[in-house]
C-alpha cells in the first residue's frame, strides 16, 4: 500500500483585515468585506459562485428563464461583459434597447436574488471584434488601452452611458451590483487600470468590489483592484499542432500557484513579471474564469467534456479558491452587426478566426439554453458550497507529504485537504483530459491534526478509480452529530420529518462508508449494510447507495439526523430550492427552475417525473395533465401523465453535392483562416430542410439536431445567416424559436456544409481517417423539449 499522509499545521494567525480599499455602501444589511484570505458578507465567511452570461448574446425575452436556470445550478452571481461595440457600433448612437437592455438584465438578477458583476471594459476581449472596442474608435488617431487623452475622452462618454443605465442598481439602493471589473487581460499598464477605475467612479458606478483579471503576471495598481484568476481545461488560442497545453494540464493538480500564464498568451507579446507575483497573504484566491467549456477557433477546435470541467472546478476548491467564477456558464450567439460581423477574426488582426454567430462555448447551458451534463456536474459542487461554503472559505489548503514531481507525473495520486485545524474536507482528483490517469489500488489516507488524534480512512483501503474526483468530509458537525469521515461527498442538507438530512453522493467504484463519533450517537439504524462499533466510532458500511439508503441517527443531544447516500448518477439529479413554501430537494435528470409558487421542468420525456424531499402536503398540480404519485425511497416521486410525444421526422434534401475542398489559407501568425464566403457559396454541399407546421406553431424548446462532418457549416433562411459552426465532432443544434417563423414556413431552412482539405493545419480532436473531412449531414432529428409547471396542490 502506498502511504498517503498529510500533517495539518497549527492554525495560521487571523487574516489581515482593513488593509484593502474596498468598502460597501453604508447601512447595507449584509456588508461585503475582503480579508487577506477570504471574503465576508454580513460578517460571515462568503463563498460566491459566479457564472458568465452575456445578455447581448441572448434574446431578452428568454433572459429570466435562463437566469433562473443559472440560479438552480448554484450560481449566486451573474457576470457579464458590457460590450461597447454591441451598444455603439455606430458612433454617437448608443443603444440599450431589446437584447442590449443592460438595466433590465441587471434588474432581473436583482428580482431573483442574484448578484450582478458587470465587466465594463472598455476592452473586454470575449472573442468579439476589436475586443469590444468599436471600429470608429479604432480608426481615430489615438492609442487604445492607455491614458492617451483622446482615448480617455471616448471612454469617459461610454462609462457615463453605462452608469446611467445602472443608476439606482448599486448596493446603496438595494441593487445587485456586488463587483465591477475594469478592462481585461491588461498586463503591463497598472496606471491605466487605476485611471479606468477613477473614470468609472466619476461616472457614478459604485460597488463594494473592484476587480481585475490577474493572469499572465499582471502588474496591478497597488491594492486598488481585487485580482481574479482563471484556469481552463483546454484552449483554442494555442497552435493547431501544439498538443494539450501544459498551462491547462496544471489545473488538474493541487497546487498553491494561482496564476495561469496561458490564458490570452497569444495577445501578450512578452512576459511582464517584473513586479513578481501578487502577495498571497494580502488577497484571497478568487476566480472569474474557470473554464465552463471552451470556444472553438477555426485552426484549433478543442472538445471539453463534463468531467473535465467538474474535475477542474473541484480541484480549485481543494487548492484554496474562495470564489468559483466560470466563463462561460451560459453560451450565446453574436448579434448581427449593422456594419460588419462582430466576431474576433484574422480580418480584424486577431490571431484566431471564430464562428460568425455561434458563441456556444460548450457551456453548461448552451447557446439555446440546452442543459448539458456539465451543468449537473457543477451543480453538485455548488450544492456543497451553498451548504458548507461558510465553513470551507476560512479553511486553508494543505498539500500532502508525497506530491507529484511535475506536470507530467501521472502516477502520484493528486489530493489535498482544506482544514481549520480540527475538521476539514479531503479532495481527490484522478481525472484529466486526453491522458487518463491510472487506478490507485490499496489507497488510504492519514491526516494528522495538531490538537486532535489523526484520522485514517477508510477502514479498509480502496481503489481510487481512473477518472474519479471527489470530496470527503473530515469531522463534519451535522445537527448534534459528528461525522468523523465518510467515503462519500457531502451534497447538502434539508429538514424533513423533524430531522436534518445530510445528503451524500457515492463515488462509482468506491463503497460508501460512514464513521460516526460514538460520543455523539444514541442509536443508529440502516436499511442495508452493517453497523459496527470500532474504537470510539460507529462504522456504517455495506449500504447500497440510492434513494432508500437513509441511515437514521438519534444523536446524543436528542436531535435526529438522517444520512442519505445517493448513488453517483442520482446525486447529479439533485436540485435544492424553495418550493411550495419550504426548502426542498428535487430529483430530476432534466432542467428544473424554482420560481415563486411553482417548480418548472423542461423535459423531452413523454411522462416527465421528479421526486421531492420533503414531500408537500398534497401532490403538486400541473395544468392540463394528471400527476401520479409514488414512493421513491426517502423521496416522493411525481409523474406527469402528459401523453405520448409526437415523433416528427426531419426531411433533409441534398440540393447540391460539395465540390473539391478549397485550398487552405493562412493568416495571423500563420494560423489557418476560415474559408472565404465565396468558397462557402460555391463549393459547399447544400441541403434543404422542411420544417413541419406543428413545430412552427410552437417553436419554443424545439431544436434541429444535426450530426455532420466537414469543415464548417452555416444555416440560412433565405439569404440571412442564422447559425454556424466549425466541425469539432459535436452535434450541431439550431434553435427553431430563433428563426423568423413566417420566412421558415415559406422557404424552409438552407444548410451549407464545406469540406476540409486534407492538408489543412487544423486541429480536430479524436478524428481518424479522412471521412470526417467530407461535407455531409449524417443524421438529423427534431428535439422537442416542453415546459411543465408544477404548483402546490
Report on the structure:
This protein is an alpha+beta fold. The protein has 4 domains: 49-267 and 275-389, Glycosidases (TIM Barrel); 439-571, beta-galactosidase, domain 2 (3-layer Sandwich), CATH 2.102.20; 574-603 and 605-644, no CATH class; 651-786, Jelly Rolls, CATH 2.60.120. It contains 13 helices and 46 strands. An 8-stranded parallel β-sheet has the order 7-6-5-12-11-10-9-8, covered by helices on one side. Helix 6 links the parallel strand 8 (179-181) and strand 9 (209-213). Helix 5 (149-166) crosses helix 6 (190-203) and helix 8 (306-319) packs parallel to helix 9. The longest helix is centred in the middle third of the chain and has 20 residues, at 373-392. It is globular and about 75 Å long. The model has no long low-confidence stretch (mean pLDDT 96).
Report a brief summary of the structure.
This protein is an alpha+beta fold. The chain is built from 13 helices and 46 strands. The strands form ten sheets. The protein has an eight-stranded parallel β-sheet, with helices on one face. It has an eight-stranded antiparallel β-sheet with strand order 15-16-17-20-21-24-27-26, covered by helices on one side.
Secondary structure elements and pairings:
Blueprint: E1 4-7, E2 32-34, E3 39-41, E4 44-46, E5 49-52, H1 63-72, E6 77-81, H2 84-87, H3 102-111, E7 115-119, H4 135-138, H5 149-166, E8 179-181, H6 190-203, E9 209-213, E10 226-231, H7 246-249, E11 286-291, H8 306-319, E12 324-327, E13 332-333, E14 358-359, H9 373-392, E15 396-398, E16 414-419, E17 424-429, E18 440-449, E19 452-464, E20 469-478, E21 481-486, E22 489-496, E23 499-505, E24 513-517, E25 521-525, E26 530-534, E27 537-541, E28 550-555, E29 560-566, H10 568-571, E30 574-579, E31 582-587, E32 591-595, E33 598-603, E34 609-613, E35 621-622, E36 626-632, E37 635-641, E38 651-656, H11 677-683, E39 685-690, H12 693-697, E40 702-709, E41 712-717, E42 720-726, E43 732-735, H13 741-747, E44 749-754, E45 776-784, E46 786-791
Parallel strand pairs: 1-18, 5-6, 5-12, 6-7, 8-9, 9-10, 10-11, 11-12, 23-29
Antiparallel strand pairs: 2-3, 3-4, 13-14, 15-16, 16-17, 17-20, 18-19, 20-21, 21-24, 22-23, 24-27, 25-28, 26-27, 28-29, 30-31, 31-34, 32-33, 33-46, 34-37, 35-46, 36-37, 38-39, 39-44, 40-43, 40-45, 41-42, 41-44
Helix pairs in contact: 5-6, 8-9
Amino acid at each position: 500500500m502506498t502511504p498517503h499522509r498529510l500533517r495539518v499545521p497549527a492554525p495560521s494567525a487571523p487574516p489581515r483585515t482593513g488593509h484593502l480599499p474596498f468598502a460597501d455602501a453604508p447601512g447595507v444589511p449584509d456588508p461585503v468585506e475582503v480579508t487577506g484570505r477570504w471574503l465576508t458578507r454580513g460578517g460571515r465567511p462568503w463563498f460566491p459562485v459566479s457564472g458568465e452570461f452575456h445578455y447581448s448574446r441572448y434574446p431578452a425575452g428568454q433572459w429570466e428563464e435562463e437566469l433562473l436556470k443559472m440560479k438552480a445550478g448554484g450560481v449566486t452571481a451573474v457576470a457579464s461583459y458590457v460590450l461597447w461595440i454591441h451598444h455603439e457600433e455606430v458612433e454617437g448612437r448608443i443603444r440599450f434597447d431589446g437584447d442590449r437592455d443592460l438595466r433590465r438584465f441587471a434588474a432581473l438578477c436583482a428580482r431573483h436574488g442574484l448578484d450582478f458583476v458587470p465587466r465594463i471594459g472598455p476592452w473586454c476581449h470575449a472573442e468579439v471584434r476589436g475586443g469590444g472596442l468599436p471600429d470608429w474608435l479604432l480608426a481615430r488617431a489615438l492609442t487604445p488601452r492607455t491614458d492617451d487623452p483622446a482615448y480617455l475622452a471616448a471612454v469617459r462618454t461610454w462609462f457615463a452611458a453605462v452608469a446611467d443605465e445602472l443608476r439606482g442598481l448599486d448596493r446603496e439602493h438595494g441593487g445587485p451590483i456586488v463587483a465591477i471589473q475594469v478592462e481585461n487581460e491588461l498586463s503591463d499598464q497598472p496606471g491605466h487600470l487605476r485611471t479606468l477605475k477613477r473614470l468609472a467612479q466619476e461616472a457614478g458606478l459604485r460597488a463594494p468590489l473592484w476587480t481585475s483579471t490577474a493572469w499572465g503576471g499582471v502588474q496591478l495598481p497597488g491594492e486598488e483592484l481585487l485580482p481574479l484568476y482563471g484556469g481552463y481545461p483546454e484552449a483554442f488560442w494555442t497552435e493547431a499542432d501544439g498538443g494539450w497545453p501544459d498551462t491547462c494540464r496544471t489545473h488538474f493538480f493541487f497546487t498553491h500557484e494561482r496564476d495561469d500564464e496561458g490564458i490570452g498568451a497569444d495577445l501578450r507579446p512578452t512576459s511582464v513579471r517584473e513586479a513578481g507575483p501578487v502577495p498571497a497573504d494580502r488577497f484571497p484566491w478568487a476566480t472569474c474564469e474557470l473554464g465552463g467549456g471552451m470556444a472553438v477557433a477555426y485552426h484549433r477546435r478543442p472538445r471539453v467534456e463534463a468531467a473535465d470541467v467538474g474535475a477542474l472546478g473541484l480541484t480549485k476548491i481543494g487548492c484554496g479558491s474562495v470564489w468559483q467564477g466560470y466563463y462561460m456558464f451560459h453560451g450565446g450567439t453574436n448579434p448581427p452587426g449593422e456594419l460588419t460581423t462582430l466576431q474576433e477574426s484574422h480580418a480584424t488582426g486577431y490571431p484566431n478566426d471564430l464562428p460568425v454567430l455561434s458563441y456556444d462555448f460548450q457551456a453548461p447551458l448552451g447557446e439555446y439554453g440546452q442543459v448539458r451534463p456539465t451543468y449537473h456536474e457543477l451543480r453538485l459542487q455548488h450544492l456543497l458550497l451553498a451548504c458548507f461554503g461558510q465553513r470551507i472559505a476560512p479553511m486553508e489548503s494543505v498539500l500532502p507529504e508525497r506530491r507529484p514531481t511535475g506536470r507530467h507525473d501521472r502516477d502520484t495520486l493528486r489530493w489535498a485537504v482544506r482544514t481549520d485545524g480540527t475538521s476539514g474536507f479531503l479532495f481527490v482528483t484522478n481525472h484529466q483530459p486526453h491522458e487518463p490517469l491510472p487506478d490507485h489500488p490499496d489507497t488510504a489516507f492519514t491526516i494528522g491534526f495538531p490538537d486532535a488524534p489523526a484520522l485514517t480512512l477508510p477502514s479498509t483501503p480502496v481503489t481510487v478509480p481512473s477518472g474519479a474526483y471527489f470530496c470527503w468530509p473530515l469531522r463534519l458537525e451535522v445537527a448534534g452529530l459528528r461525522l468523523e469521515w465518510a467515503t462519500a461527498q457531502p451534497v447538502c442538507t434539508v429538514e424533513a420529518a423533524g430531522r436534518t438530512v445530510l445528503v451524500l453522493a457515492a463515488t462509482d467504484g468506491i463503497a460508501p462508508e460512514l464513521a460516526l463519533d460514538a460520543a455523539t450517537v444514541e442509536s443508529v439504524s440502516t436499511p442495508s449494510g452493517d453497523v459496527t462499533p470500532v474504537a470510539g466510532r460507529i462504522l456504517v458500511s455495506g449500504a447500497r447507495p440510492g434513494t432508500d439508503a437513509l441511515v437514521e441517527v438519534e444523536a446524543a443531544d436528542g436531535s435526529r439526523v438522517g444520512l442519505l447516500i445517493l448513488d453517483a448518477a442520482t446525486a447529479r439529479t439533485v436540485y435544492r430550492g424553495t418550493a411550495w413554501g419550504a426548502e426542498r430537494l428535487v430529483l430530476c435528470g432534466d432542467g428544473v427552475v424554482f420560481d415563486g409558487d411553482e417548480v418548472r421542468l423542461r423535459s423531452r420525456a413523454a411522462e416527465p417525473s421528479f421526486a421531492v424531499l420533503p414531500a408537500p402536503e398534497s401532490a403538486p398540480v400541473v395544468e392540463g395533465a394528471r400527476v401520479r404519485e409514488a414512493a421513491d425511497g426517502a423521496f416522493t416521486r411525481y409523474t406527469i401523465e402528459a401523453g405520448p410525444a409526437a415523433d416528427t421526422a426531419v426531411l433533409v434534401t441534398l440540393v447540391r453535392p460539395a465540390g473539391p475542398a478549397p485550398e487552405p489559407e493562412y493568416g495571423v501568425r500563420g494560423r489557418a483562416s476560415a474559408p472565404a464566403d465565396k468558397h462557402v457559396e460555391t463549393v459547399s454541399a447544400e441541403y434543404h430542410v422542411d420544417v413541419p407546421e406543428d413545430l412552427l406553431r410552437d417553436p419554443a424548446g424545439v431544436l434541429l439536431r444535426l450530426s455532420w462532418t466537414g469543415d464548417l457549416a452555416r444555416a440560412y433562411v433565405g439569404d440571412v445567416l442564422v447559425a454556424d459552426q466549425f466541425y469539432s465532432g459535436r452535434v450541431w443544434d439550431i434553435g427553431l424559436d430563433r428563426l423568423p417563423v413566417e420566412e421558415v414556413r415559406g422557404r424552409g431552412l438552407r444548410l451549407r456544409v464545406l469540406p476540409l482539405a486534407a492538408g489543412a493545419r487544423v486541429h480536430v480532436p479524436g478524428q481518424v481517417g479522412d471521412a470526417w473531412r467530407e461535407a455531409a449531414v449524417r443524421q438529423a432529428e427534431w428535439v422537442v423539449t416542453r415546459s411543465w409547471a408544477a404548483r402546490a396542490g
